[in-house]
Amino acid sequence: AIRFDDSKASSILDIDDDNTDLRGQLKLGMVVRVKGKPKIGTSADAETIEVRSELLGPVSRIDATTLTVLGQTVKVTATTFLGDELAGLASLAPNDIVEVHGFVDSVNNVITATRIERKTPASVKAFKLQGHIRALTATTFQIGDLVISFASLIPSSLILTNGLMVRVRLEATLNAGARKARKIRAVELELQDRDEAEVEGTITAFTSSSQFSVNGLAVDASGATVPPGLKLGDRIEVEGKLVNGVLVAKKVELEVENDPLKFELHGTLSNLNTSARTFEVRGVTVDFSAAQFNNGTQTNLRDAVRVEVKGVVSAGGTRLKATRISFE
Question: How confident is the prediction for the chain on average, in pLDDT?
């Protein structure tokens, strides 16, 4: 994994929300696209950061480990971080509007969530989702079980076909049945040659263990060691270089959803509470009751100290339970 310094980035934008500036608003569990300078060791300076949540819309079904949103299944795991406005999935109700960050299995229309936030209706300009087109007609298509009406909305530069992966913005209404599209675009892939590139996501097309696609990006893994049994829908991380629109892999790893060190924070400590044994870093509440310390001890904790925190998501999904804290 590469640690990017976002303080050097010229822009941090939500590209699905009219390029809204999100500087200072990155949150644990968001999935982002980063362009940066060559790495030194495991660190690099970010030049631009694009934030792309995968799904935004009303909840229609809730159970212990999944949600249904706009006809798509959202899988909640031990590494799913919940926004401060949520006290576990039990605090959600049908028709609540949620924004989901995560990894899309567009073959099965399943999103493994890394972050879920509840939104106020007034703050939502449009619903959105991503997936493969199916059941295309002259005026409608489906993503999963959701019927989307597009009428004459399609720009001349975009030709819709069954199987095409698209991102769609929908009218933000709670009506049942078909949804009306406001904007449709094909999923954009990185085509510029780069000596270093990395992608994490699900295998969306699979020819063999050496030729497959991740989130629609073609991967040539013929020169890399590949985990045995790799298959369609697996979540993986690939490192390599981009050549003519293909990620030539030098490293392929199968991602483990319950990785105990999945989350890592770097920043300035604030709101230290020694009684509750918590503090905050970048707006995230950290429980340090079971943490090990490097380069210091618990007595060195105080507001304004810079720390690195590694840990796991708490049982409620709203805070980070620290396993290791290092002083920077």
Answer: 86
